[in-house]
Amino acid sequence: MASATVVIDETNGAGPTGSETANVSNLNYGNVDAPNLVAATYPIQQGSNSFDKYNRVHVTAMGTMNKIDNIRIWKSAGAYVTGEGIQTNLRTSAYGGAVTYATPAITTFTDQVMPVAEPAANLGIAGSLTGSLTVVGYSDYWHHQLQTTGSTPGGNVNQKTFSIKYDEQ
Question: What is the CATH number of domain 1-169?
Answer without folding.
Answer: 2.60.40
